[in-house]
């Protein structure tokens, strides 16, 4: 019988994140040598990374860091919510976020190539995947730079880590209103900040659809311009942050709330796990 104890099994499980039976088999194969068993688990686990590449990593978390006028958001993914709420996955996400902040990475590929503790972030993910047994990936990275940046993280379920993350960049002194706008972005998921960011092609298409719909509804010809304009404005009100009705006061648009608070929006980013 291999020379190891229940305490050795527990210690190796905690160190590698591997399952109990895998740990016992590795210790048996290594004849109780914990260092060798760790290597066996790592090799076997890394072989499994390739097999997991085609699997879906639609769970995970969004994590954020703000330092003065620079905000960073990272979405780190795994396969199950069980792993997503685990301590080891949280620690991994924290390392990935630190790497994003330090390197200034603004996209996933750049972040994956960044070195942490002498190895790339990709290697870090592969090793974690090998230990935990699930596919792990970085889907998106976002950065916002402005005179001031506020972050907001939202849990869609109380027993899970944050699934939605927002950065809101602004200029002004009313930090409370800025935070409220960040919360608004989390809830209402605008696609752009201003009307100017919507392409002319998209606006033209919305006008065409609005006109065709109005004609199908039998609206009078003379009323069509006003109806079309109203529906296009409705499209803006749904998709453009500054045109949206403010979450805390539906009688006002976001741009009016910011104006009254002396705050100027400079940019935002929103990430939601799996979307």
TrEMBL record:
GO terms for cellular component: cytoplasm. Residues 71-274 form the Translation elongation factor EFTs/EF1B dimerisation domain. Pfam families: EF_TS (PF00889). Gene3D superfamilies: 1.10.286.20, DNA helicase RuvA subunit, C-terminal domain, Elongation factor Ts, dimerisation domain. It is found in: Cytoplasm. NCBIfam families: tsf. This is Elongation factor Ts. It comes from Mobilicoccus pelagius NBRC 104925.
